């Protein structure tokens, strides 16, 4: 990834400025990326965690211009909590995904849920907000979370992909809210579009999104096949599968990998291809690879 420092604004195109939050971790890569969209008036997409330095960095870019909306893709704690302080500082409404609060602190690609998120307006698929020379259209993309939205900027062909498509890693799908079937269907939905570039919540811009999304769908299908082959060898628990499937990754990421494998297994069970007895999973007879 190109070098980027927390709090230092970077103009990606005339209508888009990126500001990195200082919350780098094994689950957030270099940190959460906030995007400011517009010129004479603005929207802020994903203001990040509660962080005073990041708030000041956003306000420095806003520089007194009207802030039309604080836009939220989903409510993991590295994306939405910063909305409250930004709203207090500017009066801008919080607009975007629906609230979601689960008592699920399992490891995932980012933080757990923001229980205090309270939007002024919820956007459904296809609804939009706009300002001078810009429009942000909501695209429902459940899977990483059930309330996840991407936002298209039709004036430039850009899409803000949140954590549904990231520029450094595949997204973790963590049950009970994360749903692998929904995630793959949402990828297929994006694959059918003609967006020019993706600006993700983590990682570099994606300048060939169709190729990346096609590869991500293929990756999930490969993981599914790998799981079924392991189960056909013998019934297994999730940790034993992860040990075989994720050779060479940072051990700190094993808990998150277990969540993705579990999401695949739940999807396979819903399709009649696998079943669980306690913590041990087995294939059903028709689960041929």
From TrEMBL:
Xref: PANTHER family: ENDORIBONUCLEASE LACTB2
Q: What is this protein called?
A: MBL fold metallo-hydrolase
Q: Coiled-coil ranges per the record?
A: none
Name its species: Sphingomonas qilianensis
Q: Which is one Pfam family of this protein?
A: Lactamase_B
Q: Which residues form the Metallo-beta-lactamase domain?
A: 31-202
Protein origin, superkingdom: Bacteria
């Amino acid at each position: 990834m190109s070098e980027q420092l927390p709090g230092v604004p970077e103009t990606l195109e005339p209508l888009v400025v990126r500001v990195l939050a200082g919350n780098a971790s094994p689950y957030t890569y270099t940190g959460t990326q906030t995007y400011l969209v517009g010129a004479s008036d603005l929207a802020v997409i994903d203001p990040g965690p509660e962080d005073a330095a990041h708030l000041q960095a956003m306000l420095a870019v806003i520089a007194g211009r009207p802030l039309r909306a604080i836009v939220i893709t989903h409510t993991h704690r590295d994306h939405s909590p910063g909305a409250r302080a930004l709203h207090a500082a500017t009066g801008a409404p919080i607009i975007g995904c629906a609230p979601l609060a689960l008592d699920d602190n399992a490891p995932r690609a980012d933080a757990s849920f923001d229980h205090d998120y309270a939007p002024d307006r919820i956007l459904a698929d296809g609804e939009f907000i706009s300002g001078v020379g810009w429009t942000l259209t909501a695209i429902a993309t459940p899977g990483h979370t059930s309330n996840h939205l991407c936002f298209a900027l039709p004036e430039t062909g850009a899409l803000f992909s949140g954590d549904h498509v990231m520029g450094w890693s595949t997204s973790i799908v963590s049950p009970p809210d994360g749903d692998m079937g929904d995630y793959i269907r949402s990828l297929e939905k994006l694959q059918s579009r003609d967006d020019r570039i993706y600006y993700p919540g983590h990682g570099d811009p994606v300048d060939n999104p169709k190729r990346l999304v096609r590869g991500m769908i293929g990756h999930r299908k490969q993981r599914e096949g790998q799981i079924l082959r392991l189960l056909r060898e013998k019934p297994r628990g999730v940790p034993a599968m992860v040990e075989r499937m994720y050779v060479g990754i940072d051990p700190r990421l094993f808990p998150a990998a277990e969540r993705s494998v579990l999401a695949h297994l739940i999807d396979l069970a819903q399709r009649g291809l696998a079943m669980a007895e306690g913590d041990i999973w087995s294939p059903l007879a028709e689960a041929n690879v």
